[in-house]
């Protein structure tokens, strides 16, 4: 039995951040990844570093995490681009919601600017003429999730971590894990395996939502900001079987990454033409200039979701030495830094920077 201080199950962006932080702090770390590093839900993520404010816990974790992302802004592998986030309003109701949204963000210390219709045209001439305005969050950014995920794992390895790639955890033990080749690893465990987390911890209520992404050919300068509709959160947090929302970001390569869609109950990685069409029509409504552009790839990913929309971060109830960091749905990349720091602080008995209670896995006991 090989001994480790920490065994990280899963090398997506959450597991990679945990492994990197733990190794940097002097822990002897094992990383277990059955497939490609960052090849699961991380590879199907837009990589937007955005502060979501629809839930106080979501705001706290995303704001905290974005501050921690600043340490990677000069890392080439992150492809960090401070394009800012432009929230746009298509209706009077959405425009009326802007002051309250700005106030919530201001209370958290986040800088925003109100944008009228004329200002919107000045910032993004390609947007539809009938949009009413919106809100700019100038300090937000995007990253390229698979590449920074691989960089984090490689940094952990350079710091002494062991990567068990192609191996799968088949069972949690009271003192560690058992792998699919029969080998045993001893140590504290962090389950950060995304959708696969429930295979090891079936008592965690989780479900999946499939999302589509489209990447275009290179059209530099067509959009300057990451642009989302102000109704995005209603789509992201809704209970509809299928929902779409306008979300487009310019990549440093000159390409445009288009989202977003959500489907309940679709567990395969296939493409749903009807959902893809709805998503693209939503995009063209906001940016008509995108309609004739060439898309070079379409793909999907499965997002791990919790019952209440908040991730599980903390000690797993009923287990000794097992911790969990999963269920981040569409905010896994953005909140990966804060998740890892929060988890390691809790393990070390340190007072975390934000209240950990909203993310505590023990809350599932109250749902039984």
Choose one word for the global shape. globular
Main beta-sheet strand count, sense and barrel state: 8 strands, mixed
The Cα radius of gyration reads: 20 Å
What is the end-to-end distance? 36 Å
Q: Can you write the helix and strand succession as a string?
A: EHEEHEHEHEEHEEEEHEEHEEHEEEH
Question: Could you name the ranges where pLDDT drops below 50 across 5 or more consecutive residues?
Answer: none
Average of the residue pLDDT scores = 95
Given helix and strand content, the structural type is: alpha/beta
Number of E-type strands:
18
**How large is the share of residues in beta strands?**
25-35%
| SS element count, helices | 9
Estimated helix fraction = 25-40%
Can you describe this structure?
- The chain is an alpha/beta fold.
- It is built from 9 helices and 18 strands.
- It has helices at 13-24, 56-69, 92-107, 117-123, 145-158, 197-200, 232-236, 273-286, 332-347; strands at residues 2-9, 29-33, 48-49, 85-89, 113-116, 133-137, 141-142, 162-165, 169-173, 176-179, 184-191, 206-218, 226-229, 242-250, 255-264, 295-306, 312-315, 322-326.
- The strands form 3 sheets. Strands 1, 2, 8, 9, 10, 11, 17 and 18 form an 8-stranded mixed beta sheet that branches. An 8-stranded mixed beta sheet has the order 5-6-4-13-14-15-12-16, sandwiched between helices. A two-stranded antiparallel sheet has the order 3-7.
- The longest helix has 16 residues, at 92-107.
- It is globular.
- The model has no long low-confidence stretch (mean pLDDT 95).
């Amino acid at each position: 039995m090989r001994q480790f201080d920490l065994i990280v199950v899963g090398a997506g962006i959450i597991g990679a951040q945990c492994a990197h932080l733990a190794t940097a702090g002097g822990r002897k770390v094992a990383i277990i990844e059955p497939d490609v590093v960052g090849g699961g839900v991380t590879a199907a993520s837009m990589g937007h570093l955005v502060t979501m404010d629809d839930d106080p816990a979501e705001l706290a974790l995303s704001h905290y995490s974005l501050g921690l992302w600043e340490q990677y802004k000069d890392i080439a592998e992150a492809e960090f681009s401070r394009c800012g986030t432009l929230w746009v309003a298509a209706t009077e109701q959405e425009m009326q919601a802007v002051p309250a949204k700005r106030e919530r963000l201001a209370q958290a210390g986040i800088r925003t600017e109100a944008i009228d219709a004329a200002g919107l045209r000045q910032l993004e001439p390609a947007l539809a003429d009938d949009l009413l305005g919106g809100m700019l969050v100038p300090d937000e950014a995007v990253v390229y999730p698979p590449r920074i995920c691989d960089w984090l794992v490689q940094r952990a390895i350079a710091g002494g971590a062991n990567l068990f790639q192609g191996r799968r955890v088949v069972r949690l033990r009271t003192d560690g894990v058992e792998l699919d080749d029969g080998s045993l690893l001893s140590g504290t465990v962090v389950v950060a395996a995304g959708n696969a987390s429930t295979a090891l911890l079936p008592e965690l209520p989780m479900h999946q939502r499939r999302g589509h992404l489209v990447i275009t050919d290179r059209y530099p300068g067509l959009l300057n900001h990451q642009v989302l509709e102000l109704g995005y959160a209603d789509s992201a947090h809704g209970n509809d079987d299928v929902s779409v929302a306008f979300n487009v970001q310019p990549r440093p390569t000159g390409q445009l990454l288009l989202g977003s869609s959500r489907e309940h109950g679709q567990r395969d990685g296939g493409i749903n033409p009807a959902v893809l069409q709805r998503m693209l029509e939503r995009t063209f409504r906001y940016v008509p200039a995108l309609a004739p552009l060439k898309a070079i790839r379409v793909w999907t990913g499965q997002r791990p979701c919790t019952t209440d929309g908040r991730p599980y971060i903390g000690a797993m109830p009923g287990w000794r030495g097992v911790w969990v960091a999963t269920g981040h749905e569409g905010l896994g990349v953005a909140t990966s830094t804060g998740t890892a720091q929060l988890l390691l602080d809790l393990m070390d008995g340190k007072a975390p920077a934000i209240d950990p209670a909203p993310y505590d896995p023990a809350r599932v006991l109250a749902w039984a």
